[in-house]
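Dear colleagues,

For the upcoming journal club I promised to circulate an example of a predicted protein-ligand complex. I picked one with adenosine-5'-diphosphate because it came up in last month's discussion. The inputs are reproduced below in full, followed by the predicted structure.
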Amino acid sequence: MGDWQFFALLLSNGILIGLMYSLIALGFVLVYKATDAINFAQGEFVMIAGFVVVGFLISYGAPLWLSLVAALLAMIAFGFGLERAMLRKLIGRPIIAVVMATIGLAAVLRGLGPLLWGADTKPLVLPIGDEPILLEPLFIPPIQLVGATVSLLFLGLFGWFFLKSRKGIAMRAVADSQQVAMAMGINVERYFALAWAMTGVVSALGGVIWGNMLGVDVHLSLVGLKVFPVVILGGLDSIPGAIVGGLIVGVVENVAAGYIDPFVGGGTKDFAPYVVMIIALMVRPYGIFGKQIIERV
Amino acid sequence: MLSLNNVEVIYDGVILVLKGVSLGVREGGITTLLGANGAGKTTTLKAISGLLRSERGEVTKGSIEFGDARIDRLPPHDIVKRGIVQVFEGRRVFEHLTTEENLVAGAHIQADRRRVGEGIERVYGYFPRLRERRAVQAGYLSGGEQQMLVIGRALMANPHVMLLDEPSLGLAPMLVEEIFAIVQQMNRQERLTVLLVEQNAALALTIAEHGYVMENGRVVLEGTAEALRENADIKEFYLGLTEVGAKKSYRDVKHYKRRKRWLS
Ligand SMILES: Nc1ncnc2c1ncn2[C@@H]1O[C@H](COP(=O)(O)OP(=O)(O)O)[C@@H](O)[C@H]1O
Ligand SMILES: [Mg+2]
């Protein structure tokens, strides 16, 4: 294989994986945008969704479609319930309270998942085969193609929702000023709940896709670690930012791993995105698309 | 039709700000609520709109009635649905939304989406300048345009009563007159009831029929606009007010001077 073919392969791989990061980052962005909460448990949400799917598939012997629907509903309910039970009480408290609460939640979920569904790695099998699709010089695992397509679809859907729909505009209004939104008759708490429920949807999708690629156990939550470089690069509150950030992280880690791993023996994937993130923080603290504080003169 | 009866408001469980305020807002009219900085005017509006709670304030005594129902225990979105909408002081636009998106957000309680389009056209009818600026992020509008936008946005909720908090603050006199003329026009054409809070008493009393003066959490004077215009104390009050709009750092001193003048 020639040099450029190798590069094209790394690139295509990075783009597809990157879109899947974008989808999970979207969950984080939705919550931050609407409620100002920083969700450090995003990866654990994905893990729980994966556990629910394999739980239904393996333990209860349910058909795949039912398991997917169950995971979707369970994660929506989980998002809703969490907002009600925990996050609503933290409204108006310093941001660090929410941060600590979600870090605590992440730890609880990492314990709870294996406790309820077992600690062994469970396969999450989807009926899409695993013969790579050959497109000279690229070869693409089918799950990556499916994952990237689903991600694009939902990124588009959520983008449309925020830009064009009345509910989306209301949610951005809440993000802009909760008090003024209230004065317009917007039930702010309902939109908080909606944001968390949407995160539930995104997490369920992520759980299925990543669960298929990595198998389901507690390590599935580690995909959450990729969310931070993605949202720092793209901007904490920007959907286009989540897409671009995801693509950058996906490409950077794949290309870096492809060229550097042979010399250092692996691990590049895990730290390369963070190097980029730190550089980005120094150059552009709002991220590429992040909301800037508007100051008129 | 909207009345406050002996309303007491406490912030944070200890700070007593309204000490038994009673006032009535006439249906279809413009009523003004005057008073120096810190008198409790904004608190009065927030008590009506239910937005006190988001600032840890509470109506602890008295009642607020609208039509024949008590509204002082309702959440803000219910109060907007009943037809009372507050326009905050300080031109609080949704900065990151466009002009038109601000208007759409203002129509949140409107279930029928066709009516939203009609509402937007109605607002552009009153404020043609907003139509030109429809696609601009509201944070980048001029001060006057932002004031127009927040009034137009409130109109999108199709209110019976609009609570307007200091729309003149920090705007050039010509703009203020333009905006007041439009408020008057809305009052006539839509039969919109207005409760107008102002420090610019001279101007407020030209468009209002009735007025109240607040001082230190209490209503200290009430009357028709005509009577208030003739009142010697009010004339004094104007004088104090000609200085408003100066640098912030002077405000407290002036506030003190004004207050003293008012009490003496
Ligand atoms: N959220 C709050 N918490 C505590 N005190 C407040 C709050 N808002 C206003 N106050 C106090 O209540 C008094 C009246 O304020 P306000 O209603 O804003 O007056 P005005 O609108 O007439 O200038 C002031 O002394 C102010 O400091
Ligand atoms: Mg005020």
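Two points we might discuss: Confidence is low (pLDDT under 50) at residues 241-264 of chain B. The interface with chain A takes residues 49, 51, 54-55, 75-77, 80-81, 85-88, 92, 94-97, 101-102, 104-109, 113, 116, 137, 139-140, 153, 157 of chain B (CB under 8 Å).

See you all on Thursday,
B. R.
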